[in-house]
């Protein structure tokens, strides 16, 4: 049989092992099943050629693979493509169905059955079904689908043993008979039933690799499948049940502007207290200053000092001010790691609670004028923590122009948490008036930049169309697992970038290029911005790390207006080296360079204008 | 009538959804032409939130004004 995308090869699955695949809609508790079924030894890797994380682990004599949550199998985005390739090559599929949302979820179930794969259905969250008074006839469901159905409450470990037992009984189920003729007409020699179905459904990628033209039957097949899912749901759901009252009320508060905005502000404040104060100051104070700088830093400097004379290029490269063994690990482990962990914790809680989609709904209208839809609020919020990480999440936006707009806004206008701390410290003594001017200036640039890009960039942005999952209390274990895997993935990505940055800056410094840059830039600083010559150093440091730039202003004696101009420039100034690297990685060299130079121009332009107005 | 004209609490039947991709996505969410949905919430000039059973969807205003609906009995 011809396989265009050989999973065993790309995922390096040892020969002879069967792959058991977990598939389900988003937020149905797939990761809980994964943890319950496999235990501790989980291998997290990026799916080849994408940034989508794949979890897999040994499962008896087989391998269990988790897939990204999808509403159906096709190729609308990266995550779906990954889920599609893994499901197509599954030996057995465990389909997790969110029981209260059975009608929606059965679409995927029926699609997997239509693909001709052996399936077991885990009907999860049965506790919510019972609590709400909803009733589902499980036996009838099994009969209509033709596959084993196991009721489960994964978070309470209920039904896991039965699910394992049912795996041996996994069966092909009852596919839509209407499909047979269509599948046969395709001439199915050398093409699996799953691939054939996706070709019929117009999946261009699968069609191309079989040398077929994509089918035009998607709409018909989808509608038939949707009708069948609804019929089955209507038959097996014998009592509809009611949602929880507090749940509905809270969901309403989050989306109505009058209550939603205070809820959002409260949420941001808690996040600021947790990340901006607790993590960025207390925790980082311990990890960066004491553990990494004092203990580790002194140790490594004295160790290298035994072999290399101080002041030589190699010694500078390894343990100098910007050394590969000093600056890189100190920032990476002492500063970035706690911030990253803190941020992913907050994000996981937001994700698992169901708040994010409601926030996206609340702000949708405000973002439309900037060529974005509500979903773009996720990278923006993340940006206040770390622009580097936030840039990565622009991937979830629906079109290329939205990804560009969001990346530009992040890179230019959003100060990260490290920088926010320093900015707050500098601006607080100046009083409310200056704070208001600062905020108004940054907001004006944010809006103006978004509006202009929206006009200039070709194409059309996508509209908001999102599923609002029920509000649920996040599970600690799930939150911790997510935080761990995401932080680890981030560190793996960031470490080489930091080492590279250390080398680059050491070379600049050692060769005197840094000094030269300071000289070149000083006319701009002094005559255009009205700042002292030494402020140039702050800007150059700001290229490396944004909060360095702001901190550099601390040492100078400045008038209030000068401080304000300095802060505005530093905020709008180029993002830190790590961010630039990620922007280049995500958007390519060309766009990366545009954004980099663009932010420089905007920063000095706005700063200079402000200096003249004040 | 289009979906953006619907009042909060009103029940409507979806008549037409524009754009192949949006339609496919909606079908997977459980909403297709012929589905009867309830308008749960309308944000001022913002998204319309509809529900169908336990399922809730937020639809941007720009999209809502392209979705044709009729009053459901």
Summarize the entry for a quick read.
The complex is a heterodimer of chains A (614) and B (73). Chain A has 614 residues and is of the alpha/beta class.
Overview of this structure, please?
The complex is a heterodimer of chains A (614) and B (73). In chain A, 64% of the residues lie in helices and 7% in strands. Chain A is α/β, with parallel strands linked by helices and 614 residues long. Chain A folds into two domains: 7-239, Rossmann fold, CATH 3.40.50; 258-613, no CATH class. In chain A, strand 3 (53-59) and strand 4 (62-66) form a beta hairpin. In chain A, helix 6 runs antiparallel to helix 11, helix 21 (432-456) runs parallel beside helix 26 and helix 23 packs across helix 24. The longest helix of chain A has 49 residues, at 257-305. Chain A is elongated and about 80 Å long. In chain A, 48% of the residues are buried. The model of chain A has no long low-confidence stretch (mean pLDDT 85). Chain B is α+β, with helices and mostly antiparallel strands and 73 residues long. Chain B has helices at residues 20-29, 61-64; strands spanning 11-16, 36-42, 48-52, 55-59, 68-71. Chain B has a five-stranded antiparallel sheet. The two termini of chain B are 15 Å apart. The mean pLDDT of chain B is 92. Strand 10 of chain A pairs antiparallel with strand 4 of chain B, so a sheet runs across the interface.
């Amino acid at each position: 049989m011809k396989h265009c995308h050989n999973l065993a090869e790309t995922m390096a699955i040892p020969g002879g092992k069967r792959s058991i695949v977990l598939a389900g809609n988003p937020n149905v508790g797939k990761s809980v099943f994964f943890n319950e079924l496999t235990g501790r030894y989980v291998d997290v890797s990026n799916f080849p050629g994408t940034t989508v994380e794949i979890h897999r682990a040994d499962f008896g004599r087989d391998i269990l693979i988790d897939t990204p949550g999808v509403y159906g199998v096709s190729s609308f985005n990266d995550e779906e493509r990954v889920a599609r390739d893994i499901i197509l090559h599954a030996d057995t599929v465990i389909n997790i169905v969110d029981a209260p949302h059975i009608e929606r979820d059965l679409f995927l179930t029926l699609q997997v059955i239509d693909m001709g794969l052996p399936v077991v259905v885990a009907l999860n969250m049965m506790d919510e079904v019972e609590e709400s008074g909803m009733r589902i006839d499980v036996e009838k469901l099994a009969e209509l689908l033709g596959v084993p159905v196991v009721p489960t409450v994964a978070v309470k470990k209920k039904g896991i043993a039965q699910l394992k037992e049912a795996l041996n009984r996994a069966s092909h189920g009852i596919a839509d008979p209407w499909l047979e003729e269509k599948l046969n007409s395709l001439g199915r020699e050398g093409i699996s039933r799953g691939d054939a179905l996706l070709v019929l459904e117009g999946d261009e990628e699968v069609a191309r690799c079989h040398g077929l033209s994509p089918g035009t039957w998607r709409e018909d097949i989808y509608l038939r499948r949707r009708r069948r899912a609804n019929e089955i749901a209507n038959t097996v759901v014998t009592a509809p049940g009611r949602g929880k009252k507090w749940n509905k009320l809270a969901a309403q508060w989050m989306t109505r502007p009058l209550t939603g905005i205070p809820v959002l502000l409260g949420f941001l404040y808690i996040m600021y207290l947790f990340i901006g104060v607790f993590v960025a100051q207390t925790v980082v104070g311990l990890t960066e200053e004491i553990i990494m700088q004092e203990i580790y830093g002194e140790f490594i400097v004295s160790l290298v000092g035994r072999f290399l004379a101080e002041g030589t290029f190699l010694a500078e490269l390894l343990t100098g001010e910007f050394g590969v063994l000093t600056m890189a690990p100190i920032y990476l482990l002492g500063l970035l790691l706690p911030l990253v962990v803190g941020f992913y914790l907050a994000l996981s809680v937001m994700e698992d609670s169901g708040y994010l989609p409601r926030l996206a709904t609340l702000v949708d209208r405000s973002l439309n004028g900037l060529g974005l839809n509500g979903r773009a609020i996720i990278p923006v919020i993340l940006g206040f923590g770390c622009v580097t990480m936030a840039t990565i999440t622009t991937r979830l936006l629906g079109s290329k122009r939205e990804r560009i707009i969001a990346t530009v806004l992040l890179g230019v206008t959003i100060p990260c948490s490290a920088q926010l701390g320093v900015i707050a410290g500098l601006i607080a003594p100046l009083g409310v008036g200056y704070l208001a001017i600062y905020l108004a200036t940054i907001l004006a640039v944010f809006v103006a930049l978004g509006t202009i890009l929206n006009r200039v960039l070709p194409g059309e942005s996508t509209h908001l169309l999102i599923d609002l999952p029920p509000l649920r209390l996040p599970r600690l274990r799930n939150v911790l697992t997510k935080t761990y895997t995401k932080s680890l993935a981030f560190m793996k990505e960031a470490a080489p970038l930091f080492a590279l940055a250390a080398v680059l800056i050491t070379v600049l410094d050692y060769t005197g290029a840094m000094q030269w840059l300071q000289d070149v830039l000083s006319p701009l600083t002094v005559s255009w911005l009205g700042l002292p010559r030494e402020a140039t150093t702050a800007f150059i440091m700001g290229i490396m790390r944004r909060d360095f730039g702001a901190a550099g202003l601390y040492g100078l004696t400045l008038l209030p207006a000068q401080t304000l101009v300095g802060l505005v420039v530093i905020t709008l100034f180029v993002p830190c080296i790590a961010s630039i690297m990620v922007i280049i990685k995500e958007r390519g060299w060309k766009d990366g360079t545009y954004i980099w130079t663009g932010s420089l121009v905007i920063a000095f332009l706005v700063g200079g204008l402000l200096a003249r107005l004040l | 009538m289009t979906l953006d004209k619907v009042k909060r609490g009103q029940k409507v039947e979806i008549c037409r959804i524009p754009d192949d991709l949006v339609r496919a996505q909606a079908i997977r969410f459980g909403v297709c032409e012929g589905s009867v949905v309830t308008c749960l919430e309308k944000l001022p000039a913002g998204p319309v939130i509809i529900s169908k059973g336990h399922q809730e969807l937020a639809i941007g205003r720009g999209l809502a004004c392209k979705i044709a609906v009729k009053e459901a009995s």
